[in-house]
Amino acid sequence: MSGMAMASLSPAAAGGATGLVMFHAKGEDLMVHVKASGFAPGSMHGFHVHDKGNCASPDFSSAGGHFNPGAHPHGPQDAARHAGDMPNLQADAQGKVDQKFVLKGAKLQGETGLVGRAVIVHADADDFKTQPTGNSGARMACGVIAAH
To answer: What is the pLDDT of residues 51-97, one digit of tens each?
Structure first.
């Protein structure tokens, strides 16, 4: 079984970001590293794992809703949350993201694993309150998570 997975981000038809999302198994958690560009300088973006590994539709609606096998409410990392809820991405002054964080209790493989699902970067920041999406706006980039 692989201890790593990756997703290559493609921009939405209306424009968006490109880059890579890397997942490394670390004990009971996953280390996530996002390297992406094409953002407005200083902007913040909601970032989630979505249920279906399908980025085929122009607006990425084909990826479905947030990955939520435990039927939890949408929320921040330190509360009950969807398995696919991740921290906001923060772009630097050049519109680039190079961000690492730990996704607690996440797995790569199996029924509750992330491999085969999609990562979505949203146009707006996640407020971590609004159900079920965090009010993070349109989907601006999508990538299917594949074992590596």
So the answer is: 999 999 999 999 999 999 989 999 888 888 988 899 999 999 999 99
Count of C-beta atoms within a 10 Å radius of residue 9: 25
The CATH classification of domain 4-147, taken from the options 2.102.10.10, 2.60.40.200, 3.40.50.300, 2.40.110.10: 2.60.40.200
Q: What is the pTM of this model?
A: 0.94
Q: What does the pLDDT look like over 37-50, one tens digit per residue?
A: 999 999 999 999 99
Domain borders along the chain are 4-147
Structure-token match 């280390």, residue found: 31
